[in-house]
Amino acid sequence: MAEENYYHTIEKPTAAEFTDRGSRFIAFAYSVDSIEAFKKCLSQVKELHPKSSHFCFAYRIGADGMTFRATDAGEPSGSAGRPILGQIDTRGLTNTAVIVVRYFGGTLLGIPGLINAYKTTASLALQLTPIVRKLVLFTYQVECDYTVANEFLKIIRQFDCIIHEQEMQLFCRYTIGVPRMHEDRVIGLLTTVRGLTLKKVTI
């Protein structure tokens, strides 16, 4: 299959530590699929390390990798966020975030020293988790009557679709992920199901 049908991210959260002239750098790597998910991770790290002087981070999100951010969080410009993002990009990852906590050790490291410390710590954390390949999915909201739910489920299971959410009330409502490679076929089949409505969701 074409590589555009997949993206690469990390399998599980990891943490790694690096020290330089008394300063401690602790990196936390996460797989995140939205900015909201990243913010939750950042809040957790801040709760774990309330006395830290800096929380520098970078993330790249989305199957196309077009949502990204890198911040120095008070460190000299370009000395923290960009080196962290560089480690994410070197591995070709997306839906990935790395947060590096710093405890100042009393000795100034200079910009080259900071770049090396943030780059090294991020790299160590990313080395501790396998890289996994995942399908690029498009999100759809589907509503149908109970009488055709089995027909709907049969179609999506045939093409490796994922059910993110489901709600059973007067009607069956689903939020599903449709693999890019099967999108045209799946949508073509679903539009033939009596009374079923579907809408593509832009995230």
List keywords for this structure.
single chain; 203 residues; alpha+beta; Ribosomal Protein S5, domain 2; Alpha-Beta Plaits; 2 domains; 5-stranded antiparallel sheet; 31% helix
Secondary structure: elements and pairs:
Layout: E1 6-10, E2 14-20, E3 23-31, H1 35-48, E4 54-61, E5 67-71, H2 81-90, E6 96-103, H3 110-127, E7 131-135, E8 137-144, H4 146-158, E9 162-168, E10 172-179, H5 183-190, E11 197-201
Antiparallel strand pairs: 1-7, 2-3, 3-6, 4-5, 4-6, 8-10, 8-11, 9-10
3D structure, described in words:
The protein has 203 residues and is of the alpha+beta class. It is 31% helix and 37% strand. The protein contains 5 helices and 11 strands, in the order E-E-E-H-E-E-H-E-H-E-E-H-E-E-H-E. The chain is elongated. The protein has 2 domains: 3-133, Ribosomal Protein S5, domain 2; 136-201, Alpha-Beta Plaits. The strands form 3 sheets. A 5-stranded antiparallel β-sheet has the order 2-3-6-4-5, sandwiched between helices. The chain has a 4-stranded antiparallel β-sheet with strand order 9-10-8-11. It has a two-stranded antiparallel ribbon with strand order 1-7.
Oligomer: single chain
CATH superfamily of the largest domain: Impact, N-terminal domain
Mean pLDDT, nearest integer? 94
Anisotropy-based shape: elongated
Q: Which stretches are poorly predicted, pLDDT < 50 over at least 5 residues?
A: none
Q: Give a count of the beta strands, DSSP E runs of length 2 or more.
A: 11
Terminal CA distance: 24 Å
Strand percent estimate? 35-45%
Q: Fraction of residues in helices?
A: 25-40%
**Judging by the overall fold, what is the CATH architecture of the largest domain?**
2-Layer Sandwich
Number of domains: 2
Summarize the helix and strand pattern as letters. Answer: EEEHEEHEHEEHEEHE
Radius of gyration: 21 Å
Number of helices: 5
CATH class of the largest domain: Alpha Beta
How would you write the strand order of the largest sheet? 2-3-6-4-5
Please describe the biggest sheet, giving its number of strands, its sense, and whether it closes into a barrel.
Answer: 5 strands, antiparallel
Output the structural class.
alpha+beta
The name of the CATH topology of the largest domain is Ribosomal Protein S5, domain 2
